[in-house]
Amino acid sequence: MTAQWIPIENDEINQPKAEDIRGVELHVFLSPYDVPQGIRGFYDDDKDRFIVELKYLTDEKLVEEQSEESPEQHVSLLVGKNSGRLYKILIDVRTLEADSVELIVYEMVNEAITQLKSGKPNREKYFNAIDDVFSNKMPELLGDLRKHLTEA
């Protein structure tokens, strides 16, 4: 069963940032296409993974980006082929041997976002906004994971 989308309000993460552009101070926003409209997290029994998805105004073809530094982290990222937007995070929670799986999942998501951000310096504002989304919505996202872990 797939979880319901948790809505994300545009002004929740798309705050104006003052930037000096050629001596003129401008207030810059993210493109509405880069602001997720919703987020959800659920355990997929078929894939045996905890999945976090982001929903945007438009969809596009996805490509997988896996951490080259730490492939043993068991995290896969699906990003937009053209935009580089983060659409899905797949986490192999079976391999996590810890009492606080939720905390480890949160840390893995943060590390994955940081790695994506470091490879795309021109998308820093976007990834900072995505980081804010995860910080604000993580307790709600982990509800299905908690349920799955207590049933297992």
Protein described:
The chain contains 4 helices and 8 strands, in the order E-H-E-E-E-E-E-E-E-H-H-H. Helix 2 (101-119) runs antiparallel to helix 3 (124-141). It has helices at 10-13, 101-119, 124-141, 143-151, and strands at 6-7, 17-21, 24-28, 38-44, 49-55, 62-66, 75-80, 86-91. Strand 4 and strand 5 form a beta hairpin. A 6-stranded antiparallel β-sheet has the order 1-4-5-8-7-6, covered by helices on one side. By secondary structure, it is an alpha+beta fold. The protein has one domain (6-151).
List its traits.
152 residues, alpha+beta, six-stranded antiparallel beta sheet, two-stranded antiparallel sheet, 33% helix, elongated
Summarize the SSE layout with pairings:
Elements: E1 6-7, H1 10-13, E2 17-21, E3 24-28, E4 38-44, E5 49-55, E6 62-66, E7 75-80, E8 86-91, H2 101-119, H3 124-141, H4 143-151
Report mean pLDDT, rounded to a whole number: 83
The percent of residues in helical segments reads 25-40%
Order of helices and strands: EHEEEEEEEHHH
Tell me the span between the first and last alpha carbons. Answer: 16 Å
- SS-based structural class? alpha+beta
Strand order of the largest sheet: 1-4-5-8-7-6
Give the radius of gyration. 16 Å
Report the sheet with the most strands, covering strand number, pairing sense and barrel closure.
Answer: 6 strands, antiparallel
Tell me the count of domains.
1
> Looking at the chains present, what oligomeric state does this protein adopt?
single chain
